[in-house]
Amino acid sequence: MKAIEEWHSERMHQPLRLVRWGEFGAPVLVFPTAGGDAEEIERMGLVDSVSWLLAEGRIKLYSVDSIAGRAWLERRDPLHASWLQGAFLSAVRWEVVPAIRADVGDETAELVTAGASIGAFNAVASTCRYPDVFRAAVGMSGTYDLEPWLGGLWNDEFYFSSPLHYLPGLTDSFQLEALRRRWVVLATGTGDHENPGESWRLAGVLGAKGVPNQVDEWAGWPHDWPTWRVMLPAYLDRLS
After folding, report:
1. Residue 63 near residue 16, CB atoms below 8 Å
2. What pLDDT shows up at residue 151?
3. In whole angstroms, how far apart are CA 163 and each of 5, 37, 141, 167, 233?
4. Structure confidence at residue 177 (pLDDT)
5. pLDDT band at 149 (very low <50, low <70, confident <90, very high)
6. CA–CA separation, 12 vs 65, rounded Å?
7. What are phi and psi of 217, to 5 degrees?
8. How far apart are CA 188 and CA 214, in angstroms?
9. I need a surface site. Which of 3, 59, 105, 162 has the fewest CB within 10 A?
10. Helix (H, G, I), strand (E, B), or coil: what is residue 177?
11. The domain that contains 74 carries what CATH number?
12. What is the pLDDT of residues 34-71, one digit of tens each?
């Protein structure tokens, strides 16, 4: 069963859509790639790839529009993209998560995040920033360092949205204590257009802070949807 909900995000000052597939099961929030909308994962076969998990009632799948990702992709205003990235993560926590919890009928439900490419960045960034509500992240073929897209215009909005940059300086806190009880999977192919080094770099930052994580290299697999259609069900099977 598919359902679509839309509202005006007070944090991003624009419409935001949340799409759901399934009726029962653990909630999983899948972020699109940079230019994708909330239904991209259905068009590109990710929903079909986990259809057996949906049919068994093990997961309910959700996705949102890639609003910040589109701003980065346009490369027109890095300062606005940085601001929007922070606002997007805030909207996920304070608008999307409550909507998902209301849908599953559990005000304390903990979510799994997932995504590919920049979607992987958002999955990991959401979990690192809000480990109180996200219990695990599955990053596939992740693009985790967005600093080259800044054009040298560094700012706090970017810094506090990027785990690669703010985690090394994060001292003992509720956030870090909670994050150390979470799990981050960094899956990456080694084929065309893949960069395993980004996953290993992030793993090093996570590990240095005592955050449980795992890097999986899929030998020869390219940076493309056929790879992610195999990866996603493999990891969600373990986490649901």
Report:
1. no
2. 80
3. 29, 24, 16, 5, 25
4. 96
5. confident
6. 12
7. -95, 125
8. 11
9. 105
10. helix
11. 3.40.50.1820
12. 999 999 999 999 999 999 999 999 999 999 999 999 99
Question: 10 Å Cβ neighbour count for 169?
Answer: 7
Structure token pair of residue 231: 């990866």
Give me 100's structure tokens. Answer: 């998902």
Domain range holding 69? 2-239
175/160 Cα distance (integer angstroms): 13
Distance CA(17)–CA(32), nearest Å, equals 12
Residue with tokens 């997007």: 88
What pLDDT is stored for residue 123 in this prediction?
A: 98
Q: CA-to-CA distance for 178 and 209, rounded, in angstroms?
A: 12
In angstroms, rounded to a whole number, what is the distance separating the alpha carbons of residues 87 and 159?
A: 13
Spatial separation of the C-alpha atoms in residues 181 and 177, rounded to whole Å: 7
What string of DSSP letters covers 129-176?
H-TTTEEEEEEES-----GGGGTT---HHHHTT-HHHHGGG--SSHHH
The pLDDT value recorded for residue 9 is: 98
Tokens of 71: 């701003």
Q: Which residue has the tokens 């679509």?
A: 4
CA-CA distance, 195 to 162, in Å (whole number)? 18
Do residues 12 and 87 lie in contact, with contact meaning Cβ atoms separated by under 8 Å? yes
Please state, in angstroms and as integers, the Cα–Cα distance from residue 239 to each residue in 59, 125, 216, 235, following that order.
Answer: 10, 19, 15, 6
Tokens of 27: 């909630």
Domain count, the chain: 1
Could you report the per-residue pLDDT of 91-125, keeping only the tens digit for each?
999 999 999 999 999 999 999 999 999 999 999 99
